[in-house]
Specification:
Elements: H1 18-47, H2 51-60, H3 64-91, H4 98-124
Helix pairs in contact: 1-3, 3-4
Length: 125
């Protein structure tokens, strides 16, 4: 007889493979980029407000908080683009095997980390 009772699913006990983690992070980065676009639109609107608003914004952008926020947005964008290229390649049936999926996922993490570091160096040097 088949048991029809609900099964307790412990989500913290499930070990997600690296390609799954990269895919979920790609979706999360897309949502965070959408939210960050509001911040970027605020900066753009403030810069068009007039000469005094632009000067105030220029001074504000030199603060560490804005620098970290802009670096975070650039890092999110770098990750989202690199993971998006991986997804496009997989849609073209390139790198669909299990081994290629794992290697591609690791490369996404390595390239996006390298791009994040380069963005930080570019911003603060």
């Amino acid at each position: 007889m088949k048991d029809l009772r609900p099964v307790f699913l412990d989500l913290f006990a499930i070990r997600l493979p690296l390609p799954g983690i990269v895919s979920i992070l790609h979706r999360i980065s897309g949502v965070l980029l959408f939210i960050a676009s509001l911040y970027l639109l605020y900066l753009l609107a403030t810069s068009f407000g007039g000469e005094t608003d632009f000067e105030k914004l220029r001074v504000d952008l030199e603060s560490p908080l804005h620098s970290v926020l802009l670096w975070s947005v650039l890092s999110l964008l770098a990750y989202h683009v690199v993971a998006g290229v991986r997804h496009i390649l997989m849609d073209l049936h390139i790198g669909e095997s299990l081994r290629a999926g794992r290697v591609g996922s690791a490369l996404v993490l390595v390239f996006s980390l390298a791009l994040s570091v380069l963005c930080g160096v570019w911003m603060w040097l």
